[in-house]
Amino acid sequence: METLPFSASHSKQISRPKCFSTFTAFNSKAGLSRVFFVRTTHLNCSRRRNKLSVKNIASDQRQREQELNGSASNGASPVPIFSDSESIAASIKYHAEFTPSFAPDKFDLPKAYVATADSVRDSLIINWNATYEYYEKLNVKQAYYLSMEYLQGRALLNAIGNLELTGAYAEALRKLGHNLEDVSKQEQVAALGNGGLGRLASCFLDSLATLNYPAWGYGIRYRYGLFKQLITKNGQEEVAESWLEMGNPWEIPRNDVSYHVKFYGEVVTNPDGSKKWVGGENVTAVAYDVPIPGYKTKTTINLRLWSTKVAPEAIDLQSFNIGDHAKAYAALKNAEKICYILYPGDESKEGKILRLKQQYTLCSASLQDIIARFERRSGETVNWENLPEKVAVQMNDTHPTLCIPELIRILMDVKGLSWKEAWNITQRTVAYTNHTVLPEALEKWGFDLLQELLPRHVEIIGTIDEELIHTIIAEYGTEDHDLLQQKLKKLRILDNVKLPESVVALLVKPKKSLTVESVKKTEVKDEEDTLTEEEEEEEEEEEVEGESNNDDIMEEKDEMIFEPDPKLPRLVRMANLCVVGGSAVNGVAQIHSEIVKKEVFNDFYELWPEKFQNKTNGVTPRRWIRFSNPDLSNIINKWIGTEDWVLNTEKLMTLRKFADNEDLQSEWRQSKRRNKMKVASFLEEKTGYIVSPDAMFDVQIKRIHEYKRQLLNIMGIVYRYKKMKEMSPEERERSYVPRVCIFGGKAFATYVQAKRIVKFITDVGATVNRDPEIGDLLKVVFVPDYNVSVAEVLIPGSELSQHISTAGMEASGTSNMKFAMNGCLLIGTLDGANVEIRQEVGEENFFLFGARAEEIEGLRKERAEGKFVADPRFEELKAFVRSGVFGPYNYGELMGSLEGNEGYGRADYFLVGKDFPGYIECQEKVDEAYRDQKKWTRMSILNTAGSYKFSSDRTIHEYARDIWRIDPVLLP
């Protein structure tokens, strides 16, 4: 055996068998090489014999210089540490032994996953460090994306796919006795989001890295996520997520990166007039970093997640020792619970406080970090006017709104800038993406609650509100009080809060001034007919003297005072603050952006039309076709003649000229069937239901909400079932195409009506799926605990996807884009991105029904006036549900929500009954089209071809160009 020194300062020797070779990972900051001695032969010999040795050595000066000259600042190598299967296998074995997360006596699937992830992470870290060393050197402008949610999905396959190492890792794991697909399934899905908002954020990070834009994401590291959904006989039940129980190999704790976050306390004014926020409750936000690799590029950007804790001295040892453990740990638990759960219930005051703490923690820690990085890059002299030239902060919905007052607080109270300077810088730095037209989703927080928790921020928001009011007055004047009051009601940030004194002085004007004595003399004059000349002279002298005595003046004041209503709550409207404080406001689909301008923020649009933009959402084609549907990807590569479409989706349009080619159609159908077989196996594993891959797979997977109208879908299924039961077997076969109707999605834990819908779907499935008369003609399956990884299985095998929200209520949607990319046909309303998808894929290739957005208000008014007449089929259907055919559960409340003309939870606010006739007629057209498989396959191909526009790469280019003003930075 050959013997080598461990290091210059260690006398310990490590023996290296001659059958081992070396590869080196260089840390350019430390100037050290980590040399791995790895076995390159006999990889399948016993694990006990396959022990690996590792040592650190100090490189000689020449080697260090050579390595540094090839590092990030001078052209880092894009090649990972290892790219061949033998080196990868050795790396995995190294991590299995020397980065242990499991007992040493086994190399089972969980251990293989963690060791493989650690191996991949080594490659990511090299490119990650290179990326940010290069950005630091150039001091480029950077975008920071703040979101309360990130739905990343499993990272392993995505990472090795982006590194172009899928084949090598698959081969390496085969040599070690495992299958890559089986290993990847061991990964716990990061429970950092809920729905489309979080998945959009993750798609954006993928595109930012792939397109070489300098950017970071910021979020919260939720320990227990939203919840894990269980489907029982009672419907949906929630338990805490356990995704962190076995550790997360993708995250890197940054214990040296932490910031204090304050709550409560008071604001004191210093002698120089500056403000200081003191006292209160303090927690510490600690950074956890997750590398986000780009596709076919060295660029690897960062997602920084915050976790909260307190200093050890905050634990009350005295209370602990006398047995009062709850008191001893109170500060610790108060800090930790901030990052326990995504969207804790906010019906109670405690729930509202916790949500606000989460939002402020995200904003405060992230902005402190952003400011620290800006200062470090600026060197000894910091020019704060340059901040908007180096930093762009994007708020993903209203959750990060507190960024605006927090940035002002830091600039004023910590950095010493004036109000005017801080306000100007903030307005040029921050931008806002609106994701909803639903009033309940446009966040409003109680003024008193916010003042209690964040007193300094309420002062700052009050000043912003005051500036806004003066802008409104300058625009509309004070003469028309009705108009002014209307504008203030719609535009103010502080709703039902008393006007500032500076504004009251402008609005309340004296009509005329009279002296006290003159009033008295006037009253006397009413009683006397005349005054003598001497009396009149004396009166005039007294009036002159009275004019100099202000105390004697009585003003008859204007009656319009704009007083708040004591019966209504005082609120802070976060969306209004976003619009006022941001440089840009964007909607996320053409129709949504128009609604934002014409309805949601119309009065703001009249003030600042230049602020409003559209940025139609997109999804990453890497995850949603290339990696989740490799079978289809290979067909696309073959027929287009290149795989460049993964980066340039416009090339998908080439498929249009082959849409009628029989060979392509045959390959297309075979691919879809293979994916359907995977879905069928998955459904049996997850639910126990056996479905036929010969049936049409009809899918609706998204957050359960009344406006998304899963209720319309299941009512349509019940109608189908009822009609089938009324027919003979022969009539059923002739009338209906076999269908498997698949649902997935979570209802928020306190959203009672949504949970009733889940229960209804599962009850219908339990009845229909066990009906021997129906057999494979109709199956209804609810997939529990829907997440990104579930979507990656279901979407490639789907043939019809339902996007049937009430028109004008879905901002965009992104699952519709994923389905279209995978050749799935859509049935839907003209809502959100459906409008643009239909334009691109062709009207004839989209199944359209339902009322238009411009009709909705009139239809609701018609209902309120009692003029709506329900379709008889719909009325029969409700009676059928109430009959108990789907079990003993009382569906009176659910069906009752579709009845009446007014009232909360009544009157069919989402127009299920109105759109029902058009929906079932449209479904008949779906059946007809599906019978002609040649026609259906052509439509499927054209849907994939038409999805070219909906890549998140295009969306990110538009954000970078129009809002952030940043350029791509390609590492040399």
Automatic annotation (TrEMBL):
CDD domains per UniProt: GT35_Glycogen_Phosphorylase
Subcellular locations according to the entry: Plastid, Chloroplast
Record's catalysed reaction(s): [(1->4)-alpha-D-glucosyl](n) + phosphate = [(1->4)-alpha-D-glucosyl](n-1) + alpha-D-glucose 1-phosphate
Modified positions (N6-(pyridoxal phosphate)lysine) in chain numbering: K818
Stretches for region Disordered: 55-78, 520-553
InterPro entries linked: Glycg_phsphrylas, Glyco_trans_35, Pyridoxal_P_attach_site
Main localization (coarse): plastid
Family: Belongs to the glycogen phosphorylase family.
Function: Allosteric enzyme that catalyzes the rate-limiting step in glycogen catabolism, the phosphorolytic cleavage of glycogen to produce glucose-1-phosphate, and plays a central role in maintaining cellular and organismal glucose homeostasis.
Protein name in the entry: Alpha-1,4 glucan phosphorylase
Record carries keyword Metal-binding: no
